[in-house]
2'-5' RNA ligase family protein (Streptomyces rhizosphaericus), 219 residues
Amino acid sequence: MSAPSAASSFRYGVFLRPDPGTCALLTDLHLLLRQQYGLVSCAAYPPHATLAGNVPTDAPEDELTGRIGTALAGTAAFTAYNLGIEKGGGGIGFNLHDLPDGSPNPGITNLLDTVCRAMAPVAEPMDHYRANPLDPGRFRAHLSIASHELLLRPELRPEIADFVEGLGWEPPRSFTADTVSLYRFRSPDWHAQWWRSMTWDHVRSWRLEPAVAAALDAA
């Protein structure tokens, strides 16, 4: 049975899942910031690095999963590096974009390109509040710690950054990036502060090929 096509209230996201240890740390951070400051937007999502986010589409889910699965076939897992807290783009998050030498991680940028190419033919234009398509030219892979509320209350950013840094929590500095997931999101009003009422379902995940196997296949 095919899952429902995306009605007007649905959006889809394709995420890179971090390792379990990083997921646990992010969950604790998000819940702590909700309890301390009332921030809910990051806690509304599963821990992730966005590859395609809040995508409106009329394509049925079996087409979406087919497109993503075909695009990811043969894609190799890679090492992602968490280079610490970065304050930019209005939010606070862990820098997942770069290699330790400061250059962009080709594993991340290539995966973004693969997913965006798969989703582009079925993605509809969007003009929704705080939900914009990723611009690959400006994209920086990250793991969000505090997000949408800081765009509305920028005066909180320095205090929250100091609070998070003061915890002294250390996430894993690297992990094998090997799991990509598709999620279905629903909000009664994407033009309002949708993160306060958004719900989501995990649709499915794909495991990327081990790097060694992918290299042998390409040889």
Residues 213-219 have pLDDT under 50 and may be disordered. The helical segments are 20-37, 61-72, 106-119, 148-152, 157-167, 211-218. The radius of gyration is 17 Å.
